[in-house]
Design brief:
Structural class: alpha/beta
Distance between the termini: 35 Å
Strand order of the largest sheet: 3-4-5-6-7-8-9
Bound molecules: NADP nicotinamide-adenine-dinucleotide phosphate
CATH topology: TIM Barrel
Oligomer: single chain
Shape: globular
Radius of gyration: 19 Å
CATH class: Alpha Beta
Largest sheet: 7 strands, parallel
Number of domains: 1
Length: 327
């Protein structure tokens, strides 16, 4: 797989990373550990060198799985994890106090079975802790050799600038996909100016953009998507128009919808590295195929026409999660 460099930092990773969250958290029951390890190792065998986890995924369980899966190839991969929630539990609110960041780093190093965290993201901005203090704490961890790079997630431009002035930010990880394009307004121009890489999460629209989900799909009762307005049955029914129209372009290109969604993101900027996730080996192979497709200008124009024509229904987060983003 081709490589990309995140921003000015020189952090080289595979053009597509692998999002490990769904193996332990978010979309219903966790995948059995040995199966999860197989999927992560298959991603590595397929050329992925960039793996995404967080203290909050489980909590804790996902870092354990990632650590075990990647231990045999530790020096050949980049592992990104995240701090920033009270006790690692998002529903308990944010906590980016310096002592908490340090404790998360030490615990993550153990769970990941590693001596250094390649990329340490603040999961959500904590309004109770000045961002300079957060960036300063990560800077200290970098000087101590426990962390290599600093990242942020769903931060707004003012906090990105303030943090970057204290400790250069290597990557911002925020939602970006064919059905969530808000970062194009302010975020992407700011990242380009500052030389910060961009890691789109939920690049497949949490599965919706692949065409595998319809208004009839019933999610497990623990599935996060039950809380997302955009996944309400009515919204899914309306948003199907986007998937159908993209599907026609995919058919013409002899690609799948998931591959179109990933190739479109890769075509936006050379410093964008999407991190799709799946629990299934055959879908992993399908998604990795998206990295080798280059969309021609006329394909991108056809996709743009579809995006302009379809009005997406439903917020991307319920209120309690929306209040944590873009601040
Ligand atoms: N920073 C943050 O706040 C944040 C938030 C969310 C996610 N993330 C990161 O981003 C990563 C990816 O995001 P995500 O998992 O939310 O969404 P995603 O990658 O857009 O979609 C994952 C979903 O799509 C399904 N899927 C994957 N490939 C498919 C295919 N080819 N055909 C049909 N269905 C397919 C998966 O189901 P199956 O498992 O059944 O295939 C899963 O339900 C996560 O793993 C996590 O590391 C970060």
């Amino acid at each position: 797989m081709k490589k990309r460099v995140l921003g000015k930092s020189g952090l080289e990773v595979s053009a597509l990373g692998f999002g490990c969250m769904g193996l332990s958290f978010g979309f219903g029951p966790a995948t059995e550990k040995s199966e999860a390890i197989k999927v992560i190792r298959a991603a590595y065998d397929g050329g992925v060198t960039f793996f995404d986890t967080a203290e909050a995924y489980g909590p804790f369980a996902n870092e354990e799985v990632v650590g075990e899966a990647l231990a045999p190839v530790r020096d050949k991969v980049i592992i990104a994890t995240k701090f920033g929630f009270e006790n690692g539990v998002p529903s308990q609110g944010t906590n980016s106090k310096p002592e908490r960041i340090r404790a998360v780093a030490d615990a993550a190093l153990k769970r990941l079975k590693t001596e250094v965290i390649d990329l340490f993201y603040q999961h959500r901005v904590d309004p109770k802790v000045p961002i300079e203090e957060v960036a300063g704490t990560v800077k200290d961890l970098i000087q101590e050799g426990k962390v290599k790079h600093f990242g942020m997630s769903e931060a707004g431009v003012a906090n990105i600038r303030r943090a970057h002035a204290v400790q250069p930010v290597t990557a911002l990880q925020s939602e970006y996909s064919l059905w969530w394009r808000e970062p194009e307004k302010e975020i992407l121009p700011t990242l380009e100016e500052l030389g910060i890489g961009f890691v789109p999460f939920s690049p497949l629209g949490k599965g919706f953009l692949t065409g595998a989900i319809s208004d009839k799909t019933e999610f497990d009762k623990t599935d996060f998507r039950n809380t997302v307005p955009r996944f309400a049955a009515d919204a899914r029914k309306a948003n199907q128009a986007l998937v159908d129209a993209l599907g026609k372009i995919a058919d013409r290109k002899k690609m799948t919808k998931a591959q179109i969604a990933l190739a479109w993101l890769l075509a936006q900027k050379p410093w964008i590295v999407p991190i799709p996730g799946t629990t299934k080996l055959h879908r992993l192979q399908e998604n990795l195929g998206g990295a080798s497709v280059e969309l021609a200008p006329e394909d991108l124009a056809a996709i743009q026409d579809v995006l302009s024509a379809v009005q997406i229904q439903g917020d991307r987060y319920a209120a309690q999660h929306q209040s944590l983003v873009n601040r």
